[in-house]
Amino acid sequence: MKSSAGAHRRLAPGIARVCNGPGAGVTTRPAPVSVLGVLAVLALAGAVGCSDPERGTVLRLAHSLEPSHPVHAAMEHLAVQVEERSRGALRIKIYASSQLGSERETIELLQLGAIDLVKTSTSPLEGFVPGMAVFGVPYVFRDAAHYWRVLDGPLGRQLLDLGLGQRLKGLCYYDAGSRSFYTKNKPIRTPADLRGMKIRVQNSRTAIRLIEAMGGAATPIPFGELYTALDQGVVDGAENNPPSLLTSRHYEVCKFYTLDEHSRVPDMVLIGTATWERLTPQQRQWLQEAADSSSRFQRELWGHKTQETLAQLAQAGVQIIEADQRPFQAAVRDLQAAFRGTETGRWMQAILEHP
Length: 355
Prior knowledge:
- This protein folds into two domains: 7-175 and 266-306, D-Maltodextrin-Binding Protein, domain 2 (3-Layer(aba) Sandwich), CATH 3.40.190; 179-264 and 307-353, D-Maltodextrin-Binding Protein, domain 2, CATH 3.40.190.170.
- The strands form three sheets. Strands 1, 2, 3, 4, 5, 6 and 12 form a seven-stranded mixed β-sheet that branches.
- Helix 2 packs antiparallel against helix 11 (281-315).
- The chain starts with 26 loop residues before the first strand and ends with a helix.
- It has helices at residues 35-45, 70-86, 103-112, 122-125, 144-152, 154-160, 205-213, 226-231, 242-247, 273-278, 281-315, 325-331, 333-338, 343-353, and strands spanning 27-28, 51-52, 56-62, 90-95, 117-121, 168-174, 179-183, 198-201, 217-220, 237-240, 256-263, 267-272, 319-321.
- The chain is of the alpha/beta class.
C-alpha cells in the first residue's frame, strides 16, 4: 500500500487478535480509533501482552510514524532481535501510523496496561513526566556529539527512568535529529520572519513557549492531522527533522526548510511498568538487549538517511536554507533563563555542564 498523508484512515477500523495468529511480529495498519475504542477492541480480542504455550508472549508496540520512516525500521529491528534472542518465546507486534491513537493517547493506554510498548517523542511525555521538558529547551545541546554523550551516560539513564512513578519505563533512545522550521508561503531566515505565522508544534508546553519566544503563534496539532492542516492553511508551517518532512509528504505543501536546528528532541521506547513486572528476568534481558541493539542500529541508519533525505527534498523543489543560528539562539535566551529554579531547569543545568 502506498504511504501517503491520511492514507491509513481509508482502511476499515478494527484490530484482530494476534497472539494465536500468524501476524505476530509484523507491522499492521488498521485505521486509528479513539482510546476508548482501542480499549474495547483490545478487551474483546483479549490479546494485550498475551501468552500462549505454543506461540510464546506477544507484546504490542504502537507509534505514530509511517512504515517508510527510518525510526520504524529500528522498531522492526527490535522485533527481529527479540524473536531471535528468545527463539520465538517473546515477540513484538508493531502498530504504525497512529492506528492505536496519537502519541499522547498511546502513552495513556500504556499507563492503563492496555498496550505494552510505545515509541514516542519526548515532547508529549512532558505532560506526564515534567522533567522530560528539558529535551524541548532550545539549544540545550551544543551539538550532536554532546547530545549523545549525555544520552549514553548516567544522566541519560536517569532520564529514561524518570517516568517510573507514572508507570512508564524507558528502554532506549532513538535519534530524532534536530528540529527545524518548514513553511508554505515564505522562508524563515531570522526569528523576525516568524511573527504572525501559525506554526504547528507537538503537544508540549515547552514547544509552545519556544515558538512564542520567536514571535510566532504556536498551534498544537496531532502529527497525523498535519498534512491536511498545512494543505488547508490552518497553519503556515511546522518544525521537524528532515526524514519526517519527507516521509510525511509535507514537502508537497511546504517548499521552504530552514535549518535553524532549534532543538534536539529524542524519541524513546517505553514499556508499561505493569508489562515489565509481568516479564521474567530472562524476558527482560532479551528485551533490553534488543532495545539497545535497535538504538545502535537506528543511530547509524539515521545519519545516512538524514543526508540522503536533504538531497531528496532539494530534488523535490524544497529550498534548503542554511540559517545563521545566532539570532535564533538570542531569541530564546530569556526562555532558557525562565526554567532556572524548576525541575526542568535542574536537568537543563546538568546537561549544559556535561562535558
